[in-house]
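Data availability (excerpt). The following record was deposited with the supplementary files.
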Amino acid sequence: MNDVIADFPPQPIRPIAALLAAARLIRNSQDTKQVALLGIALTGNSQREVYRRFIATPHGQAVIQERRELPPILDNHDYLRNLPENSLGRHYLAFMQAEGLSAQGLLDATPAYTEHLATLPEAFRLFSDYTQRGSHDLHHILAGYGRDELGEACVLAMAYEHLNIRGYKVISTIGPLIVAKHIRALGVSAKGVTAAVREATMIGRQAEWIPALDIVAALEEDLDELRARLKLAPPLRYREVIARIQAQTGWRRGPFVDYVK
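Predicted structure:
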């Protein structure tokens, strides 16, 4: 393990590329390619300590040594369907089916990041796919956020406190401005958006360190008990905003921008 860490190469920060990606993301909040490019441009050495902490855990070592991949498990709907009714896995399955998503599709949607990871040690790719892209939608379920633009900004704000991904920090910082624009396009006040993202930061800060979670084992756990164990507080501010939008429009789930179109 120490040799793997020692071989981890430095990654230069590219501020111009980051600015361009952020500008494009502001114009199109659904452009996942820009999210990947922003993350690549700002990574630098920010992931080094998170990586060290991850592989210092028994679970992290198992992920690397056994080359564990999440998509084959998370996309096995027959397996998830047979888990207990209120389990994390069953809630995840319902979310992914309702949104028409897949774990592998999430990785496929960011080929630039896949290509970037291919230039780094294999251990880091496994760590990254397991704790970030592969488990992103699980973070939505764990924390109680939807796939709407506010839910995405909140998930990234929460996850930043655990993963120290600078791209997440940028998106969750500019996110309230983008989200407010979409909410106003629905004809609803954007009041509470900034408070919801700020609350997400605090939820992440106070929670147990999620990257240490054995995701496969957690899929079978009762979601309410799992949230309590991880000290994940309910996203009350987010729920208030969502309840107001649902009460005043026909929107129910998914990106706001899709409903506006």
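Summary of structural features: The two ends are 50 Å apart (CA to CA).
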